[in-house]
Amino acid sequence: MKSKTVWILLLALFVLYVPVVFLLDAIYDPNDGGPPPSAGIRFRIPNEIGWDHEKGFAVRIGDLAGFFENAENWPNIEVWEGDRRLPRQNFRYERGTGRGAWIYWSPSDGTDPLTNGRAYWVVNPK
């Protein structure tokens, strides 16, 4: 009698487990809504950003595993807001000293990127 109860409980747990796994798999996005991997080398802009009244929101990007190692790639750098590429007029970059850079951007709707809940990405479309 006890073994039958154990098997029924195990079957009930399995029946509940399978839909939960499929639901979690459907809503989990390991890319966090960012650009697709095919877009190029991606770097998520951290929440430690600054503000320049003349240039917009700013983040200092160091040389991340050769992200900016090739000077001819600079004109191709993109900024993404979630899974959408920002228009070129919404961002610009400045080469910094050494191998890093400053990226200046403004969100598509003019909101504060620290509070609007969207992730921002810098992409080098190699």
Structural features, described:
With 126 residues, the chain is of the alpha+beta class. The protein has two domains: 30 residues; 88 residues. The chain contains one helix and eight strands; from the N terminus they run αββββββββ. Strands 1-8-4-5 form a four-stranded antiparallel β-sheet, with no helix packed on it. A four-stranded antiparallel β-sheet has the order 2-3-7-6, with no helix packed on it. A hairpin with a 5-residue loop joins strand 6 and strand 7.
Helix count equals 1
Strand arrangement in the largest pleated sheet: 1-8-4-5
Mean pLDDT: 76
Q: Main β-sheet: number of strands, strand sense, barrel status?
A: 4 strands, antiparallel
Tally of strands = 8
Radius of gyration: 22 Å
Would you identify the regions where 5 or more consecutive residues have pLDDT less than 50?
none
Structural class, from secondary structure content? alpha+beta
What shape does the CA trace take? Answer: elongated
**Count of individual domains:** 2
User: How much helicity do the residues have?
Assistant: 10-25%
Task: Determine the N-to-C terminus distance.
Answer: 65 Å
Strand content: 25-35%
Order of helices and strands: HEEEEEEEE
Task: Summarize this structure briefly.
This protein is an alpha+beta fold and 126 residues long.
Index terms:
126 residues; 2 domains; four-stranded antiparallel beta sheet; 1 helix; 21% helix; 8 strands; alpha+beta
